[in-house]
Structures are given as C-alpha cells and as structure tokens.
Amino acid sequence: MRTDTNGYDTKVTALGNGFGCRVLKNGVVLSEGWAAQKSLIAPVLRELLRMVDKCGGRSPMASASRTRNNVKHNRPSILTMPGALCRPRG
Predict the structure, then answer these.
(1) Nearest to 59 by CA among 23, 27, 35
(2) What is the pTM of this model?
(3) Which of 60, 58, 52, 54 is CA-nearest to residue 29?
(4) Could you read off the pLDDT of 7-42 as tens digits, one per residue?
(5) Three-state secondary structure string covering 13-31
(6) pLDDT of residue 82 exceeding 70
(7) What is the 3-state secondary structure (H, E, C) of the chain?
(8) Which domain holds residue 56?
(9) Which of 16, 9, 14, 15 lies closest to 31 in space, CA to CA?
(10) Is the pLDDT at 49 greater than 80, yes or no?
C-alpha cells in the first residue's frame, strides 16, 4: 500500500486469476481495476490515478501519474492492453 499526504492510497491484492488494483481515499474505495499479469499492475494504477486527477482529486500521487507519459512504457493506454480492466466504483 502506498499513501500520499492527502489520504489517497493504492492497494494491490493477488487474486486467483490476476491482481486487483484499488485507489482509496481515507480507506474508502474510489476506483478499482484488474490486471491479468503482474506487469500490468503499474499501468492499471496509473490509469486509475490519472482519472482521480482528471476528476478533481487533489493528490500529489495522482498528479504525478499524469506527468510521466514521456517514459516509453507509460505511453500506451491500458484501455487498449489485453488483460487490463478499470472501472469506477459506485
């Protein structure tokens, strides 16, 4: 689990068929995603945090997830990657 100064956390849970990825604020799930492989955890969390930032969440961790797109492995959207699924919670 990783926490920033504004109470946002990320949490990854190993499931039988992949990995569950969650973004929480003060212990409440804001959004969740699923990664089929361990290598897809970072892109899934990045996409979830990017959406938190786009929707007005004030978080240094979420803002940083939008500024790292110049790194080669960060460029493709996880929405086009097989084995990755993100959806808002609610």
Answers:
(1) 23
(2) 0.70
(3) 52
(4) 888 899 999 889 999 999 888 898 888 888 888 888
(5) EEECCEEEEEEEECCEEEE
(6) no
(7) CEECCCCEEEEEEEECCEEEEEEEECCEEEEEEEECCHHHHHHHHHHHHHHHHHCCCCCHHHHHHHCCCCCHHHCCCHHHCCCEEEEECC
(8) 2-87
(9) 9
(10) yes
What's the token pair of residue 40? Answer: 């897809």
Number of domains in the chain: 1
pLDDT-derived band at 43, boundaries 50, 70, 90: confident
Please give the single-letter amino acid code of residue 10.
T
Q: Residue 61 is encoded by which pair of tokens?
A: 């961790």
Buried b (16+ CB within 10 A) or exposed e, 41-69: bbbbbbbbbbbbbeeebebebbeebeeee
CB atoms < 10 A from the CB of 24, how many? 18
